[in-house]
Amino acid sequence: MNRKELDPDSSPQAAFGARLRTAREERGWTQEELAERMGYSSTHLSSVETGRKLPTLRLARSADAAFGTGDMFERAYRKVRNAGLLEGFPQMVEHEAKAAEIRLYEVGIMPGLLQTPEYAATLARSAVKRGAITGDQADERIALIAERQATLVRTPPPMIFVVLDESCIRRPIGQPAVMGGQWARLLEFAELPNTVLQIAPFDMGERRPFNLPITVLTLPDRSLISYAESAQRGHLERESPFVLPVLTAYHQLQAEALSQAASVAMIEQLRKGTP
Question: What confidence score (pLDDT) does residue 180 get?
């Protein structure tokens, strides 16, 4: 039988595959035996072991259950997933999950924390069609969004301030039903006791302080972290002299944006099909 040798140091994906193969062989299991224990085909596991397929969160958790390894494979999976994310984003997500306050500003598309599954899937399928990502990476993007949204229902929940550029709610994504569901999701979000939703209208013009998406997190110890990204890179900032001006600009943005009541009214008009 041909055996493909892997260099675990070549990539997180190769390291995961090598670790899966080693754990299996240490127990004297064939790929068919492990596949039966994990609920996957042996062909699929072979592709993961040799680095031809990306592992998923479900597969990693199935491996941990089969081998009794706690969360070892889940942690290895996160390294694989993070390797395809913008610099600084994985760390931002970790802090986001425990932040006391979350401030978001987004342009063009809905922020991940507020995307419906249908909206997220439409964006992911489009990226696959363009050749920007693989089908497996699309699945991982959708899974990551669902994972991040768990922070909305944790106890105690964070205070979440969201300002959306008007382009977020007017840019059509997918079929009308997708946008209809997304608008409904925004209205539900605005009704929560720990949220504030505002729209930054187009006529703010030059008064809009940000041109790119921005996140400001207040951690439980009241320290601040900001995260900003472009299409190609992300930047996580922890130093107060650099984060405080971003927070000040965010407060200026909130002051210029529509009130939550006016923002909700704008979204309601879009749902009803009125200008």
Answer: 95
- CA gap 23, 58 in Å, rounded: 17
Could you tell me which of 258, 99, 117, 272 has the C-alpha nearest to residue 190?
Answer: 258
pTM for the whole structure: 0.73
Q: Please state, in angstroms and rounded to a whole number, the distance separating the CA atoms of residues 39 and 15.
A: 22
State residue 215 phi and psi, 5-degree precision.
-130, 135
Return phi, psi of residue 120, to 5°.
-60, -40
Percent of the chain at pLDDT above 70? 92
What's the pLDDT score for residue 114? Answer: 96
**Better-scored residue on pLDDT, 72 or 140:** 72
Q: Which amino acid would we find at residue 249?
A: A
Helix-then-strand count for the chain, H and E: 12, 6
Rg of the chain taking only CA atoms, in angstroms: 21
Q: Are 196 and 160 in contact (CB under 8 A)?
A: yes
Q: pLDDT at position 1, please? A: 45
Question: Going from the N-terminus, what domains does the chain have, and what CATH number goes with each?
Answer: 12-83 (1.10.260.40), 89-114+148-272 (3.30.870.10)
In sign, the C-alpha dihedral spanning 172, 174, 180, 183 is negative
3-state secondary structure (DSSP) of residue 274 = coil
Phi, psi for residue 227 in degrees, rounded to 5: -140, 130
Distances in whole angstroms, Cα of residue 163 to Cα of each of 94, 103, 217, 243: 22, 8, 14, 18
In the block, tokens 């899974």 appear at 143
Number of Cβ within 10 Å of residue 55's Cβ equals 28
